[in-house]
Amino acid sequence: MSRIATAAADAGDKNTASIAYSHIDKCLSDISLPTMALLALYIRDGDIITALHYWHILTNLNLSIDSSYIEPTAMFAVAMIGSGRVLEGLSAAQEMFARIKTFSIDRSGHLSDEVSEGIDFVHQFMSARGILDPSLGLSELCEYKKTSREFYHVVSSQQELIDPYSASTDFKGSAIISDELKRINGRGKYSGFNDSLRRLQNMRHAGRHPRYIVYAKLIAAAAREKGMDVAHQILDMARADIPILYQYPMVRYGWVSILDAMVGACLTLGNRGLAEQFHDELLSIGASPTANTFGLYITTLKNSAKTLDEAADAINIFNRAKSEGVQPSSFLYNALIGKLGKARRIDDCLYYFSEMRELGIHPTSVTYGTIVNALCRVSDQKNAEKLFEEMESMPNYKARPAPYNSLMQFFLTTKREKSRVLYYYERMKSRGIKPTNHTYKLLVDTHATLEPINIPAAEAVLDVIRSTGQQPEAIHYSSLIHAKGCVVHDLDGAKDIFDSVMSDPSITPQACLYQSLFEAMVASECVHETEQILLEMPNQNVEITPYIANTLIHGWANERNIEKAKQIFEMIEREKREPSTYEAMTRAYLDVQDRPSAIKVVQEMQSRHYPYAVTSKISELLMGSHSENII
């Protein structure tokens, strides 16, 4: 089976190679050769995730390491670096090259030169593409190649390649913990994290410790499962077990992954100040957070109350990453493009999308989905559909629902073309993509709001959801309530659906249900009926949202009851008011000719420093024949 797997992998036959490999006795001494062959196969195919799986197998085999590991190590490092995972690729190469130097028997007398060539190969790959080493270790390693023929420098370079903690590292235990965390994470939660923590403690009681990267993985898991205290405890263990020794690049590399994990953990938990402290510690050892961690800086902006212009801050973070010598990854570009898309900065989206491709960073399905969504936001149908076609034709395309949902929503809300919405829904299914709850909501809205109106078809979507073994959720019922009350003007029917949902213990009351009911009441000029329901919301643990407030402000303004509208506006805390809330209240004051109060509302909005593109339309409401300075 070993020979079959190797031959099939060399021939590019993934199916045969994988089946044969799965039948190999992993205790055999010849497992390394087929593992290397499958590693090479998936690297050639550009499937880094699967290649990473075989790399983990290769590095955790309890077999003697020899010079045959040099070529796959260099090849794997180049593949990782080329995919944007620079630090991970360099760390893997350094660790394996060090193990080869330490544990291999040099029968030919050329082992040092062969390792040097492997290091030089990685260095040349990076230099040719202008890729910078995030922790400056590789440049030091490359000195090994330049001076390896001088005895003194050979000793010096060997010192640079040595991990002083290698002898006390439990490689087998590290592999077990890594597999546990990967398996638990695959289930969507760290329910077995305590088992991994106990394994770590037992390892330490025996006087051993895990690999650097395992500390990093444990910190990330702890932050998600247990919180910052446990993450700090693991960091303290690492500081005690493997203190930073600045003279060893291997140790510095290892600590880059640990400190990078701490930055990510802090960002995940919303503590940006503490993240900056660990960021500074990385800078102090000549390194920076990884590109993906800079991506987290961007994606967690929404958790920071300090910013309202997330797009501008995202660009600043991206530029900071570049200034620190970090090679951007697809995740970092995706995070940046996502923020720019939400801000409707489509020119910037396309600029960074183009830059990404020019740098040889292949756009992922997420990238295309983000760009398609951004183009839909600015109603650029031609380019949205063009990029959608390009996405589907990608050789490594991974089907995801988001871009299909984006185009469905575009044709639902902007173009209002029922046939095109249903076309992309069918196209989605033909690709074997499982519709999401949002997909089903779009279907309900399509049948209920686009001509020809078909309420029974909208209701039938809920049966489709049930047929998949799922249950309709509040968002689906809220769409039906809106359709009944606002489209076919059946307020009683809307109330009946609302009441039936609220009496169903399997459905958690949500703000969207109340919003749809209030919209139906306002559309039927029954805003006075909303007061009692609004009072009952806290009993259901539902808070008033800015969007509910917008509806009610509009309703009371139609009744010329500005005091009621003002009460609703003031129910929303200042920090939670959206631009649309300011717009609704501004219009309400202008409707009753109370221009001074409208100006105060706009001034408050401007004091919160929203992007100009967001506020200009609202400010223009005060223009016209008047020219007062509102700032």
TrEMBL record:
Subunit structure of this chain's protein: Binds to mitochondrial small subunit 15S rRNA.
InterPro entries from the UniProt entry: PPR_rpt, TPR-like_helical_dom_sf, TPR_dom_fungi, TPR_mt
UniProt-listed Gene3D superfamilies: Tetratricopeptide repeat domain
The entry's keywords: Repeat
Family that this chain belongs to: Belongs to the CCM1 family.
Described function: Regulates mitochondrial small subunit maturation by controlling 15S rRNA 5'-end processing. Localizes to the 5' precursor of the 15S rRNA in a position that is subsequently occupied by mS47 in the mature yeast mtSSU. Uses structure and sequence-specific RNA recognition, binding to a single-stranded region of the precursor and specifically recognizing bases -6 to -1. The exchange of Ccm1 for mS47 is coupled to the irreversible removal of precursor rRNA that is accompanied by conformational changes of the mitoribosomal proteins uS5m and mS26.
Coiled-coil regions listed: none
Protein's UniProt name: Bgt-454-2
Domain Tetratricopeptide repeat: 1-60
Nucleus listed as a keyword: no
Repeat region (PPR), residues: 329-363, 364-394, 545-579
Boundaries of every Pentatricopeptide repeat-containing protein-mitochondrial domain copy: 458-570
Pfam families: PPR_2, PPR_3, TPR_24, TPR_30
